Hints:
This protein is an alpha/beta fold and 366 residues long. The chain contains twelve helices and 13 strands. The structure holds pyridoxal-5'-phosphate. Pyridoxal-5'-phosphate binds at residues 28, 84-86, 112, 156, 160, 188, 190, 216, 218, 224, 229. This is Aspartate aminotransferase. Its cofactor is pyridoxal 5'-phosphate.
Amino acid sequence: MEYETPLFFRVMKYAADADRDVIDVVSGNPDWEPPAALRNGLREYADLEPDAFQYAPSVGLTELREEIATRRGVDVEQVIITNGTGEANYLAMARALERDRGDEILLTDPVYPYYPGKTTMLGGRQTFVATDADGQLDPAAVREAASEETAAIVVNSPNNPTGAIYPAETIRKLVAIAEEHDALLVSDEVYDHFDLEGRFASALEVESAHRIVTNGFSKSMAITGVRVGYAIFPHDLVENARSRHMLVNVSTTRPGQYAVLNALRETEPAYYERNRDLLRERVETFTDALDAVGAEYTTPQGAFYVMARFDGFPGTLENTYRLIDEAGVAGMPGEVFGESRREWLRFALVTPRIEEAAERLATYFG
Length: 366
Ligand SMILES: Cc1ncc(COP(=O)(O)O)c(C=O)c1O
């Protein structure tokens, strides 16, 4: 079996090799400061005794697990510290498939492409359930698609790429569907701090032995390179996931865990609010420019992304390259997120050059 290199790397390389100035609105790397306590934690770490440079407990530093368990209202035994949300999703999906309750993973369309990538890698089969024009997922459509073959339903709210936030009622129904089919709801909540309208509902609000919540600090603390995330498993499913995590990773970065713990303890809510304010401003600047050229677009309720559709300019890889060469703006082709957004392009609002990117698009499509 062959795994495809995520297309995102190809677009980044094409943009980097272009012989003109290109604004990168491809990747989900925050451009703002991590919390000061994160930097301080890393600095402090460098001067610790040699034993701090040895293996951390495989399941994660105890104090970090305790801090997360307290904040999320779960038992510390349920928490595994992972190599980012990416690994947490992998552990959750692998756990769902190894239960022998079917080999189908229900995903949304559009979808964060790593989910189908992981499904294939794990030998599962994917079935897509279309979301509506605003990226909302109708639980009735999920119920219709679900069967005894369904091992997991994997969702992401706030959503990459649509920016949709699912209401508490949707989450509650998705958990109920997972329970009805003896499947697992995997809820990836990595953008929870980027709830721009105060609507976010965590799957942890629904008590169930059929839901796994994944999360991480890559986005909330602007540290995609540090690699610290976590998964919260139901009690009876956590043991195997711990073993898989241990066999694949031994353990997760110890300096990273230490610094994240320091940042969790010391960072004021104002830090997160500032970043949301910045994003709200960028969304406005960017969508104003899209309005000016009559483009259709999604206004995100959360996360970092705006999807846009320009008449006569479908979101193919070829057009993405054209936009790099001719407008100097690098976005992501909508086709990588699934069938339903083939006409669309995705732009990540994580560069200080949003105003310039917006102007370039307005000039190009104007
Ligand atoms: C929906 C979603 N899940 C997971 C990840 C990966 O997060 P992490 O860096 O914590 O592995 C991303 C990164 O873009 C994402 O968009």
